């Protein structure tokens, strides 16, 4: 592994790919994962040092381990590997051989880094499996078979696993495959929230929506508190009682960006209990006799669930800032935004009240795609 200059091609990712948006990250280190061309790098936000740790060739779903000491990813043989950032040591922590699954679409490492749960499938349009692996022994336990969306997540204690699933027998991929010939609307699917003991057993359905999908699933301070979004609204659910509460509905002119395949537009800090959202700012315009929304900028909003107050802490007239991560005490929000020229990117940080903005690393490369 070798340090590389800070002025480089920079396209940050939060360990995602087209098959699986990464779950909301709750970083406890000052490290940030990103891509440089076809190489995966880690930025030390304190030391402002960038280290190249792995080639992207044949690998996918890169993400930092919970401790920040390693980078986890799916290798070309469809197993999860963890590479220590400092030593370069690589461990293979899953083994799909002898089982029904052939491809991993998502995974999450337990808070103590002793176990991993994977979302895998025998084929692109077939039912999927949630499987539990002991990281030390690679022993696999298949937990569930069904149709899931995105990676599962671990509770803070490591005792529970939360995930979203569709009970109609369709996955998001099936819905796209089953689109009517010649185009037309996709079939509908609804992903609700379920919670399962990490040791197995029967899952508990936590939400019961009849349409739409629960996204951006995130545990709060303990195992009994979950947050999620539906459309342009943030919700909180009490897991034991299954009571769902709406916390905040974004104004119509601010469109909440659900995290994409390779970027993260929502951040959460477990210590301060603050959320950060990247939103597109739009205005109503009349074009060709029709009312349309025109994008006029982007903002970062911070929301405090305790006071239920939202505040804009950053504005941009360019593309939306993304890869939002809180770090430090008191918390600062780190994010990436476009620079002055096309292909330029900057890592910036801002205090939770928006009064203290700093540029951390500036990077540029016209070949970034």
Which helices and strands appear, and what pairs or packs with what?
Elements lengths: L1 E3 L6 E2 L18 E6 L2 E6 L4 E7 L4 E5 L5 E5 L5 E5 L5 E3 L10 E7 L5 E7 L6 E7 L5 E7 L1 E7 L5 E6 L6 H6 L14 E6 L6 E2 L9 E5 L5 E6 L2 E6 L4 E7 L4 E3 L9 E4 L4 E14 L2 E15 L4 E8 L5 E6 L4 E7 L5 E8 L5 E8 L5
Antiparallel strand pairs: 1-5, 2-3, 3-4, 4-5, 6-7, 7-8, 8-9, 10-11, 11-12, 12-13, 14-15, 15-16, 16-17, 18-19, 19-20, 20-21, 22-24, 23-24, 24-25, 25-26, 27-28, 28-29, 29-30
Evaluate the radius of gyration: 20 Å
Number of helices: 1
Q: What gap, in angstroms, lies between the N and C termini?
A: 24 Å
| Portion of residues within helices | under 10%
Largest sheet: 5 strands, antiparallel
Integer average pLDDT: 78
CATH architecture of the domain at 93-249: 6 Propeller
Sheet with most strands: strand arrangement? 1-5-4-3-2
Under CATH, the topology of the domain at 93-249 is which?
A: Neuraminidase
Q: CATH superfamily of the domain at 93-249, called what?
A: TolB, C-terminal domain
Overall SS class: mainly beta
Task: Summarize this structure briefly.
By secondary structure, the chain is mostly beta strands. The chain has one helix at 172-177; strands at residues 2-4, 11-12, 31-36, 39-44, 49-55, 60-64, 70-74, 80-84, 90-92, 103-109, 115-121, 128-134, 140-146, 148-154, 160-165, 192-197, 204-205, 215-219, 225-230, 233-238, 243-249, 254-256, 266-269, 274-287, 290-304, 309-316, 322-327, 332-338, 344-351, 357-364. It has a domain at 93-249: TolB, C-terminal domain (Neuraminidase, 6 Propeller), CATH 2.120.10.
